[in-house]
Design a protein that fits this description.
By secondary structure, this protein is α/β, with parallel strands linked by helices. The protein is 50% helix and 10% strand. The chain has a 7-stranded mixed sheet, with helices on both faces. Strands 10-11-13-12 form a 4-stranded antiparallel sheet. The chain has a two-stranded antiparallel ribbon with strand order 8-9. It binds pyridoxal-5'-phosphate. Pyridoxal-5'-phosphate binds next to α9. Its EC number is 4.1.2.27.
């Protein structure tokens, strides 16, 4: 190399000569040292070193957070293994498990679990009677009067009548067999087209129906991962605002996509496009924004995200799962919004839940794409399967045709004007509640509500105490964390006469109560959220959360004795 450079740049290049004069002794030294090794040894050593180096690089790439966070977590994990601590943690987990099981048993109201099939079937009448007498009575929360945030978005008796009648006709249908059930095949295509039209998709726009927002989001992530693979990206990464729905984390986990959570503006709770851009690299397979996000109800700046998507030629998913059926009608209802849909050239997919503000029964959502090129990557095929050439559009194999038919029927029966009217009522109610919250000086809005979610915090008291108090007044609100807060997602049920007024009055009197009393003990939910935020190893929180899931599936009629040590 030395000869090559000198011949090219001239033997009298003084700078080059000087450099080589410095380097030469060093290379000589290295060479004499390497003389001790055989050639094959040198080859093996370099291969090994490259391998270890690459592993370390991938290890760093795969870390969710930095190396420092990883080490803290490891130390915490190891210390959990110390006999003393381990025994303590086990006994705490045991206590929690015991408590959770007791809660479940209490809510069974003395009814024992069915453990086996009845040897003689109950028949129609007795079965219905059993449901009425032993199960329906377990529900205490009156969600029909608007006591619950989100959850049930609008269940009027007409819709119940309509959907159950439709269910009757389609209970046995399955769109997997499009040849047997052309009716639901046509209905699904029409639902997707109607929703694409709401979001200004052109003729190329397309999509599928899914069982819910989580499936819609995960399918889009899966599609973009395939697209990245086809471009030679081996370790795809996604960049989403930290306020994006947990379904993106689920997709990242299921499909081995690294996820970057971009912090949002502390005042608006919207992602800052410039900050988001700084997370993009050559492995980025998609970016996303929410319209609106679940925690604080603000809409990310989709117009700027679209511009970034175009500049970097990266797909952009807009999560309109929650508010899709509101934002699509807000303009017609007289409310202004920036653009959020396929009118923006960078938007490549949109998820929109029909089972939220579309008012269809649960198990229904739509995932839309700008063109079939994207949707193709969502599909799955197993063309050599002995059972036949297998293709499926979504996660499921067999699907409920009844859900498609009920969705189709709900959309058709409410119609455009119907949705505009409900949207207006909901946004008006949201603004009424927003104004009331602003007037309570101990409370602070966490963000300006763009659509139907009002989130608030307090610098005067622990906000989770307010959650507790509202729960005891019969309200079911959502707890938020990082930072702590409480929100209500306003639904059609809150637009019923007197509901919003009752909410505001209860909120005022709860705040007054808290301000006038000394600190009392926190309720369960509040206590959990207060204690978990400082633990570095979040796996222990997951352990407790999983205990809750376990308890939901528990069918023992007596709690297991405390301290059994089993999990
Ligand atoms: C509800 C929701 C989803 C998806 O939730 P599912 O429970 O699976 O329907 C996704 N994003 C946002 C913003 C949501 O509110």
């Amino acid at each position: 190399m030395k000869e090559f450079l000198l011949s090219r740049l001239g033997h009298d290049n003084t700078l080059l000569n000087e450099i080589f004069n410095k380097i030469d002794p060093i290379t000589q030294q290295i060479l004499t040292r390497l003389d001790r090794y055989e050639r094959w040894e040198l080859v093996v050593i370099s291969v090994l070193m490259t391998y270890v180096g690459m592993r370390f690089r991938y290890f760093l790439l795969d870390l969710d957070k930095g190396l420092w966070d990883y080490m803290k977590k490891q130390v915490f994990k190891l210390s959990k293994k110390l006999p003393f601590l381990n025994a303590k943690i086990m006994s705490e987990l045991d206590k929690t498990k015991h408590g959770l099981e007791e809660d479940i048993l209490k809510s069974n109201k003395g009814e024992l679990f069915v453990q086996k099939l009845p040897s003689l079937g109950l028949g129609i009448d007795k079965t219905l009677e059993t449901i009425e007498q032993k199960y329906v009575k377990l529900n205490d929360l009156n969600w029909k009067n608007g006591a619950v945030s989100g959850c049930v978005y609008g269940a009027d008796d007409n819709l119940t009548l309509l959907t159950t009648k439709v269910y009757e006709k389609f209970a046995w249908s399955n769109p997997m067999h499009a040849d047997v059930f052309p009716d639901v095949r046509k209905m699904e295509a029409e639902v997707v087209r109607m929703v694409c039209n709401l979001f200004h998709g052109d003729e190329d726009s397309c999509g599928t129906m899914t069982t819910g927002g989580t499936e819609s989001i995960m399918l889009a992530c899966k599609a973009y991962r395939e697209l990245a693979y086809s471009k030679g990206i081996q370790r795809p990464e996604m960049v989403v605002p930290v306020t994006a729905h947990a379904a993106f984390d689920k997709a990242a986990n299921f499909f081995r996509i690294k996820i970057h959570h971009v912090p949002v503006d502390p005042i608006t709770k919207k992602v800052n496009p410039k900050v988001l851009k700084s997370y993009i690299n050559s492995n980025t397979c998609m970016i996303a924004g929410s319209a609106p996000n679940f925690p604080h109800g603000s809409i990310d700046p989709i117009e700027q995200l679209s511009k970034i998507a175009c500049d970097y030629k990266i797909p952009l998913h807009v999560d309109a799962c929650l508010g899709g059926f509101l934002i699509a009608f807000m303009q017609d209802a007289g409310f202004k919004l920036p653009l959020f849909d396929f009118r923006l050239p960078g938007v490549t997919s949109i998820s929109c839940d029909t089972h939220k503000y579309g008012y269809t029964p649960k198990g229904s959502s739509v995932i839309m794409y700008r063109s079939t090129e994207y949707r193709k990557n969502q599909y799955f095929s197993a063309v050599e399967w002995p059972g036949g050439i297998y293709v499926s559009p979504t996660f499921a194999g067999s699907r409920a045709g009844s859900l498609i038919a009920m969705t189709w029927a709900t959309l058709m029966s409410i119609g455009h004007e119907g949705y505009v009217k409900i949207t207006k009522d909901i946004i008006d109610t949201t603004r009424y509640i927003t104004k009331a919250v602003e007037e309570i000086k101990e409370l602070k809005l966490m963000a300006r509500p763009d659509v139907s979610v009002v989130a608030f915090e307090s610098s005067e008291f622990n906000i989770f105490r307010l959650l507790d108090d509202m729960t005891s007044k019969g309200w079911h609100l959502n707890a938020l964390q990082n930072p702590s807060g409480v929100h209500i997602a306003v639904t059609k049920l809150h637009t019923l006469p007197g509901v919003a007024e009752r909410f505001v009055n209860d909120l005022k009197s709860a705040v007054k109560d808290i301000m006038s009393k000394d600190d009392r003990q926190l309720g369960k939910v509040a206590a959990i959220y207060c204690s978990t935020q400082s633990i570095p190893d979040k796996s222990i929180i997951a352990d407790v959360a999983y205990l809750f899931l376990d308890a939901c599936y528990n069918t023992k009629d007596k709690p297991i004795a405390n301290g059994s040590g089993k999990h």
